[in-house]
TrEMBL record:
One of its GO terms (molecular function) is O-methyltransferase activity. Keywords: Methyltransferase, S-adenosyl-L-methionine, Transferase. The keyword Iron-sulfur does not apply. InterPro entries: COMT-like, COMT_C, SAM-dependent_MTases_sf. It comes from the Eukaryota. It holds the Pfam family Methyltransf_2. It comes from Colletotrichum shisoi. Residues 7-128 form the O-methyltransferase C-terminal domain. One of its GO terms (biological process) is methylation. This is O-methyltransferase asqD.
Length: 161
C-alpha cells in the first residue's frame, strides 16, 4: 500500500518456523521475520499492537502469566495494545464441543480453555486491562484487546476510574 515506507510488521516465531516460512516463500518480503520465543523478553518495544493467535490456551495459568509478562514488558502504557485471538467460554453454558476441547487441552498440553471470568483473573494477575472483547460467549472464538494502564489509573475489573 505504501511501498516507500519501511515495513513495521513483524512475524515472530521459533527459528525453525521462520526458516520453513522463508523456504516456502509464504510470507511477503515486506514482513520482517524475527526469531522469537515468547518465554523470553519481547524484542520489539513500544509497538502499537502485539498479536497472539491461539497461544495462551496451550498453557497453564503459570506459563500463560510468563508469556503475558514478556509481552507487557515491551508495551507502552496507554498506547500499545495486545490482541489475543483465543477461545472464550461462557461462564455457565458452553457448547459440548468446547468443553471437550478444554479437556483435550488439559490432557495433552496442560493447557485450558478459559471462561471470561478466568481470562479476566489471568489478565488482572499480570496488570493488564481488558479494553474490548469481540465475539463474546457463547461463541468461543474471540479477540481480546488489552493494554497496560497508565500508572495513575486504577485497574478494577478492566475498568479505569
Amino acid at each position: 500500500m505504501y511501498p516507500e515506507e519501511a515495513s513495521r510488521l513483524y512475524l515472530e516465531d521459533l527459528g525453525e518456523v521462520i526458516a520453513d516460512a522463508d523456504a516456502k516463500s509464504i510470507v511477503p518480503d515486506a514482513v520482517n521475520k524475527l526469531e522469537y520465543n515468547f518465554f523470553t523478553p519481547q524484542p520489539v518495544k513500544d509497538a502499537r499492537a502485539y498479536y497472539l493467535h491461539y497461544i495462551i490456551h496451550d498453557w497453564s495459568d503459570g506459563s500463560a502469566r510468563e508469556i503475558l509478562q514478556m509481552q507487557k514488558s515491551a508495551m507502552k502504557p496507554g498506547y500499545s495494545k495486545l490482541l489475543i485471538y483465543d477461545h472464550v467460554l461462557d461462564d455457565q453454558k458452553c457448547p459440548s464441543s468446547a468443553a471437550a476441547y478444554d479437556i483435550a487441552m488439559m490432557v495433552h498440553l496442560c493447557g485450558q480453555e478459559r471462561t471470561e471470568k478466568q481470562w479476566l483473573a489471568l489478565f488482572d494477575s499480570v496488570g493488564l486491562r481488558v479494553t474490548k472483547l469481540w465475539g463474546k460467549p457463547p461463541g468461543t472464538s474471540s479477540v481480546i484487546e488489552l493494554e497496560v494502564p497508565l500508572s495513575w489509573e486504577t485497574n478494577i475489573r478492566g475498568l479505569s476510574l
